[in-house]
From TrEMBL:
Organism: Eragrostis curvula (weeping love grass)
Record-given protein name: Serine carboxypeptidase-like 19
Lineage summary: Eukaryota, Viridiplantae, Streptophyta, Embryophyta, Tracheophyta
Pfam families associated with the record: Peptidase_S10
MF-aspect GO terms: acyltransferase activity, transferring groups other than amino-acyl groups; serine-type carboxypeptidase activity
Entry keyword set: Glycoprotein, Signal
Coiled coil location: none
PANTHER family per record: SERINE CARBOXYPEPTIDASE-LIKE 19, SERINE PROTEASE FAMILY S10 SERINE CARBOXYPEPTIDASE
An example Gene Ontology biological process: proteolysis
Domain of life: Eukaryota
Length: 503
């Protein structure tokens, strides 16, 4: 019996290897004629930025679907702390409706920011972000899935992807990118994402952790042309998710107690929902009385800026979860205002928010990214993207076929990978109450009780740590997503965690 017990993990691992190989062959069988990913371009200056960039920036493409000519665009920022083997390496993904990872680069954790000033027809200006996570980590930003940002497909079929196929394409991207950049292979590797990318990050981490050994065995057997010294054995150490979707009903259902706690809905409505919606998925209720109460609920929460409930409602174009478990059925979760439409050089100009709105920076990005000088500087391939948009709102096909990812959180942390889940405490789109609930559902013992963590002598949020290497933290004043609203606090949190220091 003891021998059988010992053999079971190996058998399960072998079956998982076989399963992953079948999937990888299905999606990527024709795309590994060579190990290389193509050429990257070192960018030393950007239009709108005064002087040379004070950081190393590389941009480029990696082909992930040879049959359809699909290529993912990336921005790579080398850490300002140098390129030694012990410098962490972070892959960063952005959620939303096929939103560009430029959101992460320019609004959240990257080294540039827009100078917020009224648009006057000239190229928007850029400045350096003092709270860039690149100060302590390399960051690889990828426009994923195909169609997001500057990523493209030469054949329409290449845009027809979903959670699983897009994640497998990211896996292929990493294999090819690290084959071309082997100097970073020794770095402790982490996968990060926010909002809807909170589903993709742990799934990708699972594939990387389980699939690479099996995958390279397959490459060896097929005698594909990857040199022995260039096989990318990624040094995966963990992952982090912010304001993260899970695919579980708790993501949406937690909005009800959160809205009640902040005085957005009344005691009476809260009690009505609890009474009539027991056991219901609030995003798709089958009970008529529950559905009616949730219509009232949805109308009330539309009166506040759900990304950060203390701010004024504005035209909203931030990355949002594109998932039935996140949104109320019949509502896209956004406050749509009748704002002036800017008629300019763009074929599809964005709605113009009032100056001072947090979304004004998103508006500026359209005029910056679609300027020919910007495209030339970034090395954008001619004819691949008629017009850059921050997010695609259902104009390209996408399958939400992953389901719940909580099992991947459990698998990874059980096996010793580090994990950080953090939430802005003023986010109504994916409230911290829901994140706390699924973290607790992993059923690991507490090793560091709930406490405040500090910055500058003041509480910057609250945190709790578990025996499975999982840390949960809130960001005081943070919204959806937290680094955009509280960059200094989020940088402090990330830099301490990624360097294995206590929050």
């Amino acid at each position: 019996m003891a021998k059988a017990t010992t053999m079971r993990p190996r058998l399960l691992h072998g079956l998982l290897c076989l399963f992953l190989l079948v999937i990888l062959l299905t999606f990527t069988s024709s795309s590994f004629a060579s190990a290389g990913s193509g050429s990257g371009k070192v960018v030393t200056s950007l239009p709108g930025y005064d002087g040379r960039l004070p950081f190393y920036l590389e941009t480029g493409y990696v082909e992930v679907d040879e049959d359809n000519g699909a290529e993912l665009f990336y921005y790579f920022v080398e850490s300002e702390s140098g390129s030694a083997d012990d410098v962490p390496f972070l892959l960063w993904l952005t959620g939303g409706d096929r939103c560009s990872v430029f959101s992460g680069l320019a609004y959240e954790i990257g080294p540039i920011r827009f100078v917020l000033e009224p648009y006057n027809g000239t190229l928007p200006r850029l400045r350096y972000n003092q709270n860039s996570w690149s100060q302590v980590s390399h960051i690889l930003f990828i426009d994923s899935p195909v169609g997001a940002g500057f990523s493209f497909s030469r054949q329409p079929k290449g845009y027809d992807v979903g959670d699983i196929s897009a994640t497998l394409q990211l896996h292929e991207f990493l294999i090819k990118w690290f084959s071309d950049h082997p100097k970073y292979l020794a770095s402790p590797f982490y996968i990060g994402g926010d909002s809807y990318a909170g589903k993709i990050a742990p799934f990708l981490a699972q594939i990387v952790s389980e699939g690479l050994g099996c995958y390279y065995l397959l490459l060896y057997e097929r005698q594909l042309s990857i040199e022995e010294g260039r096989r990318p054995l990624i040094n995966l150490k963990g992952y982090l998710v912010g304001n993260a979707a899970t695919g579980e009903s708790v993501d949406f259902n937690s909005r009800v107690p959160y809205a009640h706690g902040f005085g957005i809905i009344s005691d009476q409505l809260y009690e009505t929902i609890l009474g009539h919606c027991q056991g219901e998925d609030y995003s798709n209720p089958s009970n008529a009385l529950c559905a009616q109460a949730l219509i009232t609920f949805n109308n009330l929460i539309s009166e506040v800026q759900q990304a950060q409930i203390l701010l004024d409602t504005c035209v909203y174009a931030s990355p949002l979860p594109n998932d039935a478990n996140i949104r109320m059925k019949g509502s896209d979760g956004r406050r749509i205002l009748k704002e002036e439409i800017e008629v300019g050089k763009l074929d599809h100009p964005p709605a113009r928010p009032k100056f001072g709105c947090v979304t004004y920076g998103y508006y500026l990005s359209y005029y910056w990214a679609n300027d020919k000088r910007t495209r030339d500087a970034l090395g954008i391939k001619e004819g691949t993207k008629d017009e850059w948009v921050r997010c695609h709102d259902k104009d390209l096909p996408y399958s939400t076929d992953l389901g719940s990812v909580i099992k991947y959180h459990r698998n990874l942390t059980t096996r010793g990978y580090r994990a950080l889940a953090y939430s802005g405490d003023h986010d109504l789109l994916v409230p911290h109450l829901g994140t706390q609930a699924w973290v607790r559902s992993l059923n690991f013992s507490v090793v560091d009780e709930w406490r405040a963590w500090h910055l500058g002598g003041q509480a910057a949020g609250f945190t709790i740590s578990y025996a499975n290497n999982m840390t949960f933290a809130t960001i005081k004043g943070g919204g959806h997503t937290a680094p955009e609203y509280e960059p200094e606090r989020c940088y402090a949190m990330f830099s301490r965690w990624i360097l294995n220091r206590s929050l």
